[in-house]
Amino acid sequence: MKIPFSYTFRNLWTRKLTTLLTASGMALVVFVFATVLMLEEGLRKTLVDTGSYDNVVVTRRSSQTEVQSAIDRAQANIIESQPEIAFGADGLRMVSKETVVLVNLNKRDSDKPANVVVRGIAPLGLALRPQVHIAEGRMFRAGASEIIAGQSAADRFKGAGIGERLWFGLREWVVVGTFDAGKSGFDSEIWGDADQLMQAFRRPVYSALVFKLNDPSHFDELKTRLESEPRLTVEAKRESTFYADQSETLAAFIRYLGLTISVIFSIGAVIGAMITMYASVANRTSEIGTLRALGFRRQSVLAAFLLEAILLGMVGGGVGLALASFMQLFTVSTMNMQSFSELAFSFTLTPAIMMKTLIFAMVMGVVGGFLPAIRAARLNIIDALRAV
Amino acid sequence: MTAYLKLVVKNAFRQKLRTALTMLGIVVAILAFGLLRTVVDAWYAGSEAASATRLVTRNAISLVFSLPLTYYSQIKQVAGVKSVSYANWFGGVYIREKNFFPQFGVQTSTYFDLYPEFVVPPEQMREFLRDRKGAIVGRKLADTYGFKVGDQVTLRGTIFPGNWDFVVRGIYDGATARTDTSQFFFNWEYLNETMKKTAPRRANNVGVYVVGLASPDVAAEVAAAVDATFKNSLAESLTETEQAFQLGFLSMVETIVLAIKVVSFLVIFIIMAVMANTMAMTARERMAEYATLKALGFGPQHLTLFIFGESLFIALLGGAIGVGLSYPVVNWFGGVMGSLFPVFNLKPETIYMQTGAALFVGAVAALFPCLRAARVRIAEGLRHAG
Asked: Do A300 and A306 meet the contact criterion of CB atoms below 8 Å apart?
């Protein structure tokens, strides 16, 4: 026969302070665990959304990032004339020859400098990224000292808001619009006319070429041809892979740091649960004896105490998760060590993370409650009844 | 007093399992706290080791842009400048991308004079100056990758294309424990001569100038004077103290540093909840005892002393073990991280903070039980059964 659920529930309710302390310890652990997962997911989502599967980025071989890369005009022309490149509605090839540099801008809130990506794009650059559209103001005019800023960059950096001006490369640049890049990495960038920016920075070479494939399955063929072409020293990657690769270090760092911290924290929380459950068993020795004398079996007692521990874990898990869900309101910005530039991303809660977190909370409860539950189940009826 | 201590210790070990678990929790928490604080300190190590008599001049746009070599003589003429050297960030890959360490092409004859904390044996320095492909590596770096004097090291350039061969000519030690000995220095001329051949447009460019000052007092004037020299030129400069330069890097990752800091305090809070729980349970079980003591004539202050003593005893013993374990764990962790954290030492301040945290946890945990014990009425407490 099973011990009724209400017995377990009331046990927790009677000793409110202890339950509260134990559950809040667990809630904090769960909160940290969930936050780390959400952060990693947010970063992943930001960078996955940045790249598109049927776009290709060509950079100089072994140059890891666009900023380090250089492709001269002759090479660019060779790449541009590949037959796999799609044609746009106006009959032009869907290619953007881009120049990417980092500019030091000061943050609005702290006045501290950070590296912001300034990307010079060709007229077709916008069409190549369907997730990007102008949110406010207008597109920059080709040939003018005008720039547009991603929403996140516009919010965070001095002089990057619409109507404001930035000074770099011996010129004043007017921000004529802001663009919404659907929470992708482009939101942290500033875009302008490639030819103007190259002139201002005195860079006669492009940083990278981005183009759309007319058929995504032609990628491997094209990659082999470009990389074995003797006149070129380049590397071609799908845009989606390119951006995912750039966040590897940061994602790994967040993951390892988060896991280490979660493990350390959960040791504390498990110990807390164990202490609570041991005390719960010790306090109720005669009660357990009575239950056994009434005919409840050992496994029923074991189940009841395990359930109590799991319930404790679930309370902690629920509270922790609820707290963590508020983190979605915040955006984190930090330097991506690989690209050396500032990147903004937000905490993202997915059903998978909710499941993982609740399972984690439950496991903590089970681990903490298992040994005490065994002690409870093992109690000898006579001894237990005799206990005060 | 001895009787009091005896009672406290005896009380603490009455529930052996519970005390042991609580203590284990405190050990883990104090250890984790120490480790996280050391990680935070490691980020700041670069700026702390910075000298007040050195300025760094870089391109005003950002570090990605270089400055012309011709600025060298112009900076040298600025009043208050004692010596000037320059360096280029190389950003090469040693075998695999995860083997990261900083590499700089430096102006060999002046650079090491500006950095007296890099101690190189004179005969190794002579060899380094004679060999254009020579390199000087830090002790920690040499230990990590097994570099010995005379070894050939090949780096794959990411910023400067191609494979670059170097010969290790010297190994430098740090003058203090805070000196970064995970860097790789080589001859700037090697870089420049190669660029002249392969990419002439990029030759004769310098990443940063390091400016040595006659005295730290003139730092602000010199920085302003240097930047004024290159105002409205194609490559405007930005000059700041070495410390500000290092802090600039740090501010870019400050979110991460902040998160680690917050987490290090959270871990203390969690253990506080665990410890408070332990003490609350202990006090509840002993209500009858407290009432008996009161009936015998002990006042609330005595009970408070007992409970505080027990709580502090458990917390401090756990804390002491945690601090004791911190040394080996920090050493081990620093070894595993290798050149990612060039300077990774447990600071005395961290140990004070760990001890303070243990004391705090013990004191806070005793608070509620003390109040309850002090308030309990004798008759009610005597009736109280476990």
From this structure: no
DSSP run (H or E) holding B168: strand B163-174
ipTM reported for the complex, 2 dp: 0.77
| Interface contacts A/B by beta carbons within 8 Å | 149
**3-class DSSP state for residue A333?**
strand
Whether residues B252 and A334 touch (CB distance < 8 A) is answered with yes
Q: How far apart are CA B27 and CA B357, in angstroms?
A: 12
For position B386, what pLDDT does the model report?
A: 45
pLDDT reported for residue B385: 55
Q: Tell me whether residues B158 and A102 touch, CB distance under 8 A.
A: no
Report helix, strand or coil for A85: strand
Whether residues A68 and B232 touch (CB distance < 8 A) is answered with no
- Helix or strand or coil: residue A96? strand
In this complex, do A388 and B385 lie within 8 Å of one another by their Cβ atoms? yes
Please judge whether A340 and B64 are an interchain contact, meaning their C-beta atoms are less than 8 angstroms apart.
yes
pLDDT in tens, A315-340: 999 999 999 999 999 888 888 877 88
| Interval A143-165 mean pLDDT | 93
Q: Which of A258-262, A304-308, B122-126 has the highest mean pLDDT?
A: B122-126
Q: Is B158 close to A18, i.e. CB distance below 8 A?
A: no
pLDDT for res A112: 84
Residues A22-34 as b or e (16 or more Cβ within 10 Å = b)? bbbbbbbbbbbbb
Which of A67, A105, A266, A271 would you mutate first to test chain B, the one with the most B CBs within 10 A? A271
Token pair recorded at residue B84 = 């000037």
Chain B: residue nearest A72 by CA?
Answer: B199
Chain A residue with minimal CA distance to B25?
A: A268
Domain limits, chain B: 2-46+256-383, 61-235
Candidate from A28, A60, A102 with C-beta closest to B62 = A102
Q: How far is CA B301 from CA B12, B297, B313, in A?
A: 19, 11, 18
Domain ranges of chain A: 5-48+248-386, 55-212
Taking only the tens place, the pLDDT of each residue in A235-254 is: 999 999 998 888 887 888 88
pLDDT tens, B199-230? 888 899 999 999 999 999 999 999 999 999 99
Neighbours of A338 (CB within 10 A): 16
Mutate to test the interface with A, among B14, B31, B64 (most CBs of A within 10 A): B64
**Is-contact B273 A22, C-beta < 8 A?**
yes
